[in-house]
Amino acid sequence: MAALLPEEAHEVALDQPSMAPLFGLLRLHLRETLGYTPTGSIAGGAVLFRSSWVDDRPRWMKVDPDPTYGWSKLCRGGVEIASIPGDHLAVIRQPHVRELAARLEAALRAGDAMAAAAPDESRESAR
Fold first, then answer.
1. Contacts for 24-32 with beta carbons within 8 Å, 24 or more apart?
2. Which of 59, 44, 62, 56 is nearest to 114 (CA)?
3. CB under 8 Å to 104, separation ≥6 — which residues?
4. 47 near 82, Cβ under 8 Å?
5. Closest among 8, 44, 48, 57 to 118, alpha carbons compared
6. What pTM does this model have?
C-alpha cells in the first residue's frame, strides 16, 4: 500500500484510522492466498506476466525460488515468463502498460492459433 503514496506521507497515512480496513483486507487476502491449494492441472501452457522488479531485486529479497510461482506444476504444457518493465503497480500504468498489452495480445493470438491447429478432441478436453 505504501507504493501508492508519496514517501513523505507514509508515516502519517499509515497511522490513519481509515487505513484499518485496508490492512484487514490485506490480512484476509494473505490468509486466503497462503491457504489455497490448487488441484488438478491443464494440458496446455501459460504465460506468466510479471514485473521486471522481481528479476532486479536482490537475491535475499526473492520470496519463491520457483520463477513460475508454482504454475509449472499446474500447466503440463510449460510456462513462459514474460517480464514487463516496472514494479508490481507500474506494469499497469503508462508507459509500461503498452508493453504489457502488446505482449498479452501476442500471447492470446498464439493461443488462438494453437487452439485452431489442435485436433477437435484436444479442444473439447480443454473446455
1. 26/1
2. 44
3. 47, 49
4. yes
5. 44
6. 0.66
Q: What is the pLDDT along the chain (127 residues), one digit of tens a residue?
A: 556 666 766 677 767 787 788 888 988 999 998 898 888 898 889 999 999 887 776 666 666 778 898 899 999 999 999 999 988 888 999 999 999 999 999 999 998 898 888 876 554 445 4
- Report the b/e string of 70-95 with b at 16+ CB within 10 A: ebbeebeeebebebbebeeebbeeee
Place of cell 506494469: 91
Quick one: cell of 119?
Answer: 485436433
